[in-house]
# Entry
Amino acid sequence: MSGRGDLGRRSAAERSAAWLVTGPVGHLVGFFAEAVSLGGRAGIRAARLRLQKLLIRRTGPVRLPDQTDRSFDAERTSPVTTMEPIAALRASLAGQVVSPEQADWDEARRAWNLAVDQRPSAVAFPESAADVQATVRFARDHGMRVAAQGTGHNAGAIASLDDTILLRTLRMREVAIDPGVRRARVAAGGWWGEVTAPAGEHGLAALAGSAPDVGVVGYSLGGGIGWLARRYGLACNSIVGAELVTADGELLRADPDTEPDLFWALRGGGGSFGAITALELELFPVESVYAGALFFPLERAREVLHRWAEWAPGTPEELTSVGRMLNLPPMPELPDFLRGQSFALVEAAYLGPEEEGAELLRPLRKLSPDMDTFATVPVPALQDLHMDPPEPVPGLSDHLMLSEAPPEAIDALVAASGPGTDSPLLSVELRHLGGALARPAENGGPLASLDGQFLMFGVGMPISPEVAEAIERRAGQVREVLSPWAAGRAYLNFAERPTDTETAFPPDVYRRLQEVRAKYDPDDLFCANHPVPAC
# Structure
């Protein structure tokens, strides 16, 4: 389906362990290698391979909290999944339809986040807009719902998939770049890595996320904060047109002149309004950036994050940065400087000359980092900067938007998950907002701007039920200690569990979203991860 069939058959523990090699560790030794000498590449690859083989031998299947047996369960499956209606759906699609009795059912329903146990009535893999139309019409005629999904990064936010067809758009991956008008047309299943590379060949940049395999559509409909965000704003407001199938099965185009209310709602309002078949996005004239990370021992987290939080608000909007605490496991095969180490780090990307970026970083470099990976790189290289996992893993997370991050907030954050706390969180970060993110986008959608100045995100990998419970507790503690500085708004792309969508929008904006939902999907056919109910 997605070209990752072999990966899909490995256990959650094996995926998690492999990521510790190919994710943070792999990127630490590979990211901007020309900027910092960390040893021979052949030796690194050999050590990485030895570690991965060892982990696969040592780890076994892991069952996460509230996960039931992944085998076929007729009592938990919609009555519509009998051979006759499903056969009719299969006959109407060029793509594939998978139902619970089939051998590839578990792989078909698997989300990118392996901590999520998706149980729809059937899974459809459309290959065209016509396939999407046929699936929507089938669901409507059989009293079912449709949940459109690309990768499933934020699948945990869906409350239920009962009586629902999961519409996996992984096979709709066409990308076309028009450098003359600086636009990209991306089919429903396209990943950011499939956009940034061809756009970069023309000296153009999309407002992409921090990982190459995040789906363009879900990320963009829900907001989108990337490394160019403080200069160019949220990705949702770079949408200039959308093609989608509405609840009546019609294929529409929404743009400023055609279906303008629907176009407005799609730019940050989420996936409640139809099944996207393609997005058209604005591209920006950025060819290279000065980017990298400064690594410090975690014991210096309070000092480093204090300095960063004081420094970041005074930086120009051409610079987007993150202050972060990162933990790595005590595996014997890791190099000495990484084995069992935890880091405080600052990641940043600057849209300007290297000499200007170096001057901006001078206050942080005075802290004498242990590693400094900053260099001028092509924009597509930004997909490696945040060291996101390169393949599906289980994840549990929480987030909180902050109106400010004064010294007391940094102290509270470090006390909750910093050195000496034995935190089960792999990463806890603060993203600096402001700049273009704080200014309402001209003709923007419901998420025209963000009110907060910082955004906290904490995540751990639940490789066992006990670890999962510890992650949940610690993430809740981090959120609680930072609550005095909460901005009062959720950011739905970081809300990876069922959330009251109303908390993400001002009251008048939310009412308008409800009105648009009532116009285009009055019977609640579409099941979104963060639904907007019809008024």
